Amino acid sequence: MPRPSLLFAIPFVCISAAAQVTPVLTGYVTSVGSPGEFMVNAVAVHCLPTTRLTLLRDGTHLPVQPCPHRSLGEELTIDGKRDKKSDVITATAIDGVAPVQKDVDGFAVIDHIMADHIVTTPDKNGDIRVSADGYFITIPSAVHIAFEAPLTPQTVVTTNMWLKYAGVQHPDGSVTAKSASISLNILKGRERKVNEKAEFDPTSVTEADKQGAVSKVFLGVNPTRFPATHDAEMQRRVQTIGEALIPAYQRDLPDSDPSKIDFRFQVVDQPKLHDAVTLSNGIILVPQQIVGRLKNDSQVATVLADNIACALEKQQLRLIPARQAMSAGDVALIVGGAFVPGLGIGGQAGLVTGAVVIMKREEEQSGRVSLVLLHRAGYDLAEAPTTWWILGSSKEKPLEKTGMSARAKYLYRILDTTWHQADQDSPAAAVATR
Fold first, then answer.
1. Which of 24, 73, 208, 281 could disulfide-link 416, Cβ–Cβ 3.0 to 4.6 Å?
2. Environment class of residue 140 by beta-carbon count within 10 Å: exposed (0-12), middle (13-18) or buried (19+)?
3. Which residues, including other chains, have CB under 8 Å from residue 18's CB and lie 6 or more apart?
4. Is 382 left (phi over 0), alpha (psi -120 to 50) or beta?
5. How far apart are the C-alpha atoms of 128 and 121, rounded to whole Å?
6. Are 71 and 423 in contact (CB under 8 A)?
7. Ramachandran region of residue 87, left (φ > 0), alpha (ψ -120 to 50) or beta?
8. pTM score
């Protein structure tokens, strides 16, 4: 979804697969077939028994069997020759880098708890394993969980609670927390006011209500004045896909629970947008040209899932203090990272730097969470990065001739690390399917 106006666009770096006699193509595995046939940046690659293969881990070259199964999202460098007629690269050498352990941290809503790992108190019956922030996280029994009032150490950890964590992600994709705190998902007074201000009937906005150019300049873009379209078939499609993506823990909340989000999906006439727009109260406005441009339901679901994730993680509401701090030029508060749990700047000073870091972290979070939503609703995860690759370009052209957006690259990396689709026995895959 478009991010708040205080944040600045992050430029993306293109990786070009331009034709060469002896190409060197560096990119991500975008399609996996047989061990000897796969695609990198939408370019077909053929691996031979004579192809030199290397896999680097911690500075050491690991032994690799001839033409192994590639993992979706794996980053590779390909040397070889490209046939002009078939547009296939016959690889003479393939170089890859093995996943390594890395530090991760965040602040997110718990969306799933493993049924065989529910515990009443984390220090009695073992580890707690949860899905949160787009990761599959184990909180060992040895880790002291800080429960924020009114919660107590006897509180049962459930879905729809906030988890603030720091830990390590292992090469197999699983995450082990080193610290964790749990708090209630409540709606604060200022957040309730923002939701009330954003409330409107998206189906009732007409062409006559459309915001004029002068109003946009002086007041900013007002999504409540996006005209609804009248393509009934497209609207039904978007509504059906969107409702399927709403996570079970949200659907199961009683209507009286203030943390329940009233998701509504409306196709709108807004031809200049390259993403949907999510309001904090759960209204998601989807430009009709995006739906028309995407190739299948999994791609449409990707856009909706990302925007649903923004609402689930309260990204707009959590940024209210950040907007106030930045408007006041309070660099000290920004540097301290106190204004947004889990989105701290970590010592980097300056309003522009703070805005860019926040935008990047929230976009990455919604991307990770969207993969969980897509998986649980039965959509094809391989289409997620492809979607943002397509929408990252203003013109329609073959993907292999289109620069890959930073958003697409990040999702490919997450598919290779967190999901390991080529490895059905990975801990992350096991947690995701339960």
1. 73
2. middle
3. none
4. alpha
5. 9
6. yes
7. left
8. 0.85
Name the residue among 260, 308, 259 with its Cα closest to residue 285: 308
Nearest by Cα to 190 from 324, 308, 283: 324
The pairing of strands 161-169 and 175-184 is antiparallel
What is the rounded CA–CA span in Å between residue 223 and residue 273? 11
Q: Is the CB of residue 307 less than 8 Å from the CB of residue 278?
A: yes
Per-residue CA distances from 59 to 56, 62, 71, 268 (Å): 6, 9, 21, 51
Report the distance separating Cα 284 and Cα 367, nearest Å: 16
Question: pLDDT (tens digit, 9 = 90+) per residue, 243-282?
Answer: 999 999 999 999 999 999 999 999 999 998 999 999 999 9
Using one digit for the tens of pLDDT, what is the confidence trace for 310-329? 999 999 887 766 555 555 55
What is the rounded CA–CA span in Å between residue 242 and residue 193?
A: 25
| Other Cβ atoms within 10 Å of 224 Cβ, number | 16
Torsion of CA 138, 343, 384, 12, to 10 degrees: -140
Closest CA relative to residue 180, chosen from 341, 401, 411, 381: 341
**Whole-Å CA distances, 119 to 65, 126, 139, 180:** 43, 7, 11, 15
At 104 the three-state DSSP class reads: strand
What one-character-per-residue DSSP string does 234-279 give?
HHHHHHHHHHHHS-HHHHTS-TT-TT----EEEEE--TT-SS-EE-
Q: Tell me the two tokens of residue 417.
A: 């690390």
